[in-house]
Amino acid sequence: MLCPNCGKTYPDTDRFCETCGVALVIDSMQPTEAMIAVAPPAPQAPQPSQAPPAPLTTPMPPLADAPTEAFATAAPAAPAAAPAPAPAPQATTDVQESQAASASATGHASFGEEQPAVPVPIVARKQPVAIPQYGTAANPGSVGSNGRMTPAASPLPPAAQLDTSRSLLAYILLSMVTFTIYAQYMFNNVSVDINTLASKYDNRKTMQYWLMQTLNILTLGILGLVWNHKMCTRVGDELRRRRIGYSFGASTYWLWGVLGSFILVGPFIYAYKLFKAMNLLSADYNVRGC
Predict the structure, then answer these.
(1) Backbone dihedral angles phi then psi of residue 23, each to the nearest 5 degrees
(2) Distance in angstroms (rounded) separating the CA atoms of residues 212 and 190
(3) Could you tell me the end-to-end alpha-carbon distance of the chain, in angstroms, rounded to an integer?
(4) Are strands 149-150 and 142-143 parallel, antiparallel or unpaired?
(5) Whose CA is closest to 71, among 59, 55, 79, 81?
(6) Which of 25, 108, 159, 191 is the most exposed place for a label (fewest CB within 10 A)?
């Protein structure tokens, strides 16, 4: 304690100054044990780096008549720190606004800080639309009055079905019974069917076998060779156009029909290959109709 009259310091248990007899009071600048026990230290708020210094408080003048315990109890608490001033808003540029917008869309800040991703709405996928087919080279469709392409109608099976039952065994047996009349009928049927199959694509026409046989007598057999060569060429071209995997052509006629006659079985092998090729073409025509 400090004597307010003479300025001497005494222990806290003394109540009066031994020199001048004045009542002792607690020094307001030095906390006593009672003040430390009664008044807890006030928490210090974090001070901002740029905050202005807090104003200094003026110590309370000593009270001569107040006891020490009452003064310790009534000691004022430390003043609260003044709130830090809010920083002034900074003006943002157009570049910063665009970076913030892109960051909010991708879920990351423009300066590398991770931000919560923005939920992306789920859009149902549209079913693929079927594109209509516009025919083939032979039937490409037509152009309407509005300038749009009209799809070609799907091919329909033909009303008349071609023969697909050509057989080498029936060709041999019936030709022997009818004295080669059935053989001439079979080859004439081949000439008619190949015109039905290929004439609208190659713009050619094979002479019927009956007429060729009549004119062949006048040409001493030369017309027969030419007729068979051209007819076999058309059959081979039609097989390739329809993408049928069977090998046949004019070389088949010259190899088996002409040169094979020296071994007697060559013409029969040629007839078998010709009938099989025509059966394949007729079956494809009966299904596709073209």
Answers:
(1) -65, 135
(2) 13
(3) 127
(4) antiparallel
(5) 59
(6) 159
Q: What's the 3-state SS for the chain? A: CECCCCCCECCCCCCECCCCCCECECCCCCCCHHHHHHCCCCCCCCCCCCCCCCCCCCCCCCCCCCCHHHHHHCCCCCCCCCCCCCCCCCCCCHHHHHHHHHHHHHCECCCCCECCCCCCCCCCCCCCCCCCCCCCCCCCCEECCCCCEECCCCCCCCCCCCCCCCCHHHHHHHHHHCCCHHHHHHHHHHHHHHHHHHHHHHCCCCCCHHHHHHHHHHCCCHHHHHHHHHHHHHHHHHHHHCCCCCCCCHHHHHHHHHHHHHHCCHHHHHHHHHHHHHHHHHHHHHHHCC
Contact between 78 and 43 under an 8 Å Cβ cutoff? The reply is no
Residue 12: both structure tokens together? 């806290």
Q: Which residues contact 89 (CB under 8 A, 6 or more apart)?
A: none
- How confident is the model at residue 274, as a pLDDT? 97
For residues 272 and 5, what is the distance between their CA atoms, to the nearest angstrom?
A: 149
Query: Which residue in 202, 255, 205, 228 sits closest to 247, CA to CA?
Result: 255
Confirm if 189 and 167 have CB atoms less than 8 A apart: no
Beta bridge partners of 149: 143
The number of residues in the chain equals: 290
pLDDT in tens, 136-189: 444 555 444 455 555 454 556 676 789 999 999 999 999 999 999 999 999 999
Is-above-0.70 flag for pTM? Answer: no
Query: What is the average pLDDT value for the chain, to the nearest integer?
Result: 73
